[in-house]
TrEMBL record:
Keywords: Cell membrane, Membrane, Transmembrane, Transmembrane helix, Transport. It is found in: Cell membrane. InterPro entries: AI-2E-like. Belongs to the autoinducer-2 exporter (AI-2E) (TC 2.A.86) family. The lineage of its organism: Bacteria, Bacillati, Bacillota, Clostridia, Eubacteriales. It comes from Candidatus Avoscillospira avistercoris. GO terms for biological process: transmembrane transport. Pfam families: AI-2E_transport. The chain crosses the membrane at residues 12-30, 42-66, 87-108, 179-202, 249-269, 275-298, 336-369. It comes from the Bacteria. GO terms for cellular component: plasma membrane. This is AI-2E family transporter. It is a multi-pass membrane protein.
Length: 392
């Protein structure tokens, strides 16, 4: 009976053709992984400015919406109303970049001073080692005669330390040059993305209306409605994520600053600001600030650097397991367990960017799956009710 039905035969034929095509494409992809990888990388590099622009637009849209609602709220003149959007975009960009530039001006000078101090300490250590072969040096310290009899090649130790210092300096210089080149390329992409984001924000209602028309014109009604619903859910969740992430980063940076003041640790304001900004990367972002903080405090006191490391590890555990799931998870209706799972899986798949975007992606999937499950349960319940009515 199945093969006598022409419609079912056509459906089976299309399904078999699709399966065969997918198998052939999979076989070709597995046999040309290097070409596939280069092609994917080329496409990613080509679309990177546009992707950055869309990301910037999503980030700037959060403060822009707030500013636009509160900027000239009682204005009557049409000319003043038209100024809201451009001024809101400008103020949003200045606010976001102003925070990062302010932290950079706070961190970079002190970090450069710490590097200079550490290098001078290394040179002093080398000079001290060069004196260890002189009898006058051993005579000037307690138990010098006893220590001088120990068979230690101080000259060789000095030579190794000098070699290590030169190698480390050369590696740092090479890394700085490579980072500068990469930064220059990224800056160009970021600038193009920023221009693209400004166009998106300035015309977001028009773009939304055009996208809706395209979807309704080219997709079936059910599929188009579902796609628009998914886009609405993702947009709402991302706005909540940005607000929650900024709140959590501020809390962590403030707690770090207060804790360092209470413990009498140096660079409290600078390290607190750095920890807060780096905490925009969920859960593990504060470790970036921790490593920089340890390096800087190490130039003042190794003991204080150890105290800072222990303090920030404890604070990081409290933040990761209590503060972050409560603050961000509550804003996104995502349980704390799934927040941690999203960060772990996102980090494994795409590194820091995956950690940053994993939480809103998981939250969107969680919300959509929750809605689909509720609809499915309602449909099954209605079906059972109809069946029970038929039996009665």
């Amino acid at each position: 009976m199945f093969f006598r039905d022409k419609q079912k035969r056509d459906l089976l034929g299309k399904w078999l053709i699709g399966v065969v095509a997918v198998c052939i494409l999979f076989y070709l992809a597995m046999g040309n992984l290097d070409i596939l990888g280069r092609s994917v990388l080329w496409v990613v590099n080509l679309l990177l400015p546009l992707v950055l622009g869309a990301f910037f637009a999503l980030v700037f849209n959060v403060p822009m919406g707030f500013i636009e609602r509160h900027l000239f709220p009682h204005a009557k003149r049409e000319r003043v109303k038209r100024l809201r959007r451009p001024l809101a975009i400008l103020l949003s960009i200045l606010l976001v970049f102003g925070i990062f530039i302010g932290v950079a001006f706070l961190v970079i000078p002190q970090l450069a001073g710490a590097i200079k101090l550490l290098s001078s300490q290394v040179l002093e250590t080398i000079d001290h080692l060069s004196q260890l072969e002189t009898e006058a040096f051993w005579a000037s310290i307690p138990f010098g005669d006893t220590i001088s009899r120990i068979d230690i090649d101080w000259v060789a130790m000095q030579s190794k330390l000098e070699t290590w210092a030169l190698t480390t300096g050369s590696n740092l210089m090479d890394g700085a040059i490579n980072a500068a080149g990469s930064f220059a390329g990224t800056t160009v992409d970021a600038f193009i993305g920023l221009v693209f984001a400004i166009y998106i924000l300035a015309n977001k209602e028009t773009l939304k209306r055009q996208g809706s028309r395209l979807i309704h014109a080219w997709l079936p009604q059910r599929a188009g409605g579902g796609l628009l619903h998914v886009a609405t859910v993702c947009s709402r969740i991302f706005r909540s994520f940005v607000a929650g992430q900024v709140t959590e980063a501020f809390i962590l940076g403030f707690l770090c600053f207060i804790g360092m003041l209470l413990l009498g640790l140096p660079y409290a304001a600078m390290i607190g600001a750095l920890v807060g900004v780096s905490a925009l990367i969920p859960i593990v972002g504060a470790f970036i600030g921790m490593f920089v903080g340890i390096f800087m405090i190490l130039t003042v006191s190794p003991l204080k650097a150890l105290i800072f490391a222990i303090f920030l590890l404890v604070l990081q555990q409290v933040e990761g397991n209590l503060i972050y799931p409560k603050v961000v998870g509550s804003k996104m209706n995502l349980p704390g367990l799934w927040v941690l799972a999203a960060i772990t899986i996102g980090g494994e798949l795409a590194g820091p960017i995956g950690m940053l975007l994993g939480v809103p992606a998981f939250s969107a999937l969680y919300t959509l799956l929750k809605e689909a499950t509720a609809n499915r349960e309602a449909a099954l319940a209605a079906k059972e009710d109809d069946a029970s009515e038929e039996t009665t």
